[in-house]
């Protein structure tokens, strides 16, 4: 994930220092958020990763990239399953955590500037990442570049449900770049990655939201994480009606 610019009170993930207010806080690095999300740091966790693997049935030893690997939960899962998996994340904190979990397989890099050769991977996993990118078009261009023709992109992400406007809000939180499903799929297709499978998994978002409310103390705090607005104003104005989906896209030959 690559969320930036949100503003609220938080405690560093490593527990050092006092609780502070910071205009560049990344919610996925917050200790209280991680208590609710676990190491996967997203709705559905590894269950959706495994669902995609069941659908795609990659051959043993396939070259896979976890783009936005976070703390390395999916990366470790893929490596343990016998795939030649590597991961990258824009967060120095999380990239270091992933590298500690799967030594030699994780590095810090932005989705829009991937340090890999064209066609380097049979598949790329992009889990709860695109909606948080500052420049999703650049990210998708790079992701498409590193996938072999006929290879696959697995996307699990937030989307705006029917009847909502075409933007996740004015903030910089996890949902800032969420789109309606039709627009999200059109964007994927523009980059030569048409969707061949879509499944709605909004129940996982609901489950995680409930855990976040219990951990953070209020629905407003959860909306602050999602939209990037401060808790004091997260309840003002229209709120995006969010869903969570799994897309499997095949790169055009």
Would you give an account of this structure?
This protein has a single domain, classed as 3-Layer(aba) Sandwich (Rossmann fold), CATH 3.40.50.150. 32% of the residues lie in helices and 24% in strands. It has helices spanning 31-37, 45-56, 73-80, 92-101, 136-146, 181-190, 202-216, 219-227, and strands at 6-10, 20-25, 63-67, 84-89, 106-108, 121-127, 147-160, 195-200, 242-250. A 7-stranded mixed sheet has the order 5-4-3-6-7-9-8. Strands 1-2 form a two-stranded antiparallel ribbon. Mean pLDDT is 85; it is low at 1-23 and 165-170. GO terms for molecular function: S-adenosylmethionine-dependent methyltransferase activity. This is Methylase involved in ubiquinone/menaquinone biosynthesis. It comes from Solidesulfovibrio magneticus str. Maddingley MBC34.
Question: What's the structural domain tally?
Answer: 1
Unreliable spans are 1-23, 165-170
Tell me what portion of residues adopts beta-strand conformation: 15-25%
Instruction: Report the structural category.
Output: alpha/beta
Spatial strand order of the main sheet:
5-4-3-6-7-9-8
Major sheet: 7 strands, mixed
InterPro entries: Methyltransf_11, SAM-dependent_MTases_sf
Keywords: Methyltransferase, Transferase, Ubiquinone
Domain Methyltransferase type: 65-155
Protein name: Methylase involved in ubiquinone/menaquinone biosynthesis
Précis, in short:
The longest helix has 15 residues, at 202-216.
Topology:
Layout: E1 6-10, E2 20-25, H1 31-37, H2 45-56, E3 63-67, H3 73-80, E4 84-89, H4 92-101, E5 106-108, E6 121-127, H5 136-146, E7 147-160, H6 181-190, E8 195-200, H7 202-216, H8 219-227, E9 242-250
